[in-house]
Amino acid sequence: MSDAYDPQATEEEASSKSQHMTFKDIRVLGVVILVTALILYPVYQMGRKKSEKAQCVNNLKAMGDAIALYANDHDDGLPVLFREENGVPAVNKRGLPYTWVSDISKYMNKRASFRCPSADEKEVVYVEDPTDSKLKIPCTYGMYAAYSGYKTFNIDLPERTVLLAETSNQGAMTSFDPLPFRDKDGKPIPDGFVIGWSDSNLQGGPASKSPTRLAFRDSANGDFSKAAGRHDEGIHALVASGARFIMQPKHVPIRIREGLPSDFWAVPARRR
After folding, report:
1. What is the rounded CA–CA span in Å between residue 71 and residue 152?
2. Do the bridges between strand 235-239 and strand 162-166 make them parallel or antiparallel, or are there none, so unpaired?
């Protein structure tokens, strides 16, 4: 007699082996599923990273466009870093600072974000939303302090001057933040929206060694030689011309020319 399933057979006549999966069958199927998942997981991870990288690049493009629109409405002036109080960011009752992100948010493409999807929650800084006091804007990008409120037409080499880059808040993920902002009571203030210098938060000079708060991990001591970027290739940055590029650890150290930081980290010879 054949073991094939017979719909006319009685329960006693039917072969239980032919109608039901055995424990061995289930175990084999489970092994196949597990092996398939292990094979496909790296592919999934690669696809996810590629998608997050693309979103981060789109975010920077949208921010560049928003800054251009803001400048067009403000006599070619770039947004100011933050509203200040005694030289540090002023915060509202919810502990949120009003920053350049707040200023350009209304110009931002709604399909873009101020937060990189690859960023860890600890790296995120939350800033004031100008449209609703109950809302807040998550941000993982910082503006280079040298050009706070600066006129765009006065930037000497916009194609080589960093304006925005991926940043980390308050030294999270072992990023470099030697001079965290603090209030009058010594309590840390969110600072991930500002790219400063190793020796100053407000003005780079001949003693500046590197910028601060960039999203390079393993750089807390100021040594970027073994630092790892938020993305495999590094971090994303935007220069004043609107072009985007991958910043690597080799781009971080500051070169001093005529007593001031130059190249990517150029500082205006004269303040406004």
Report:
1. 8
2. antiparallel
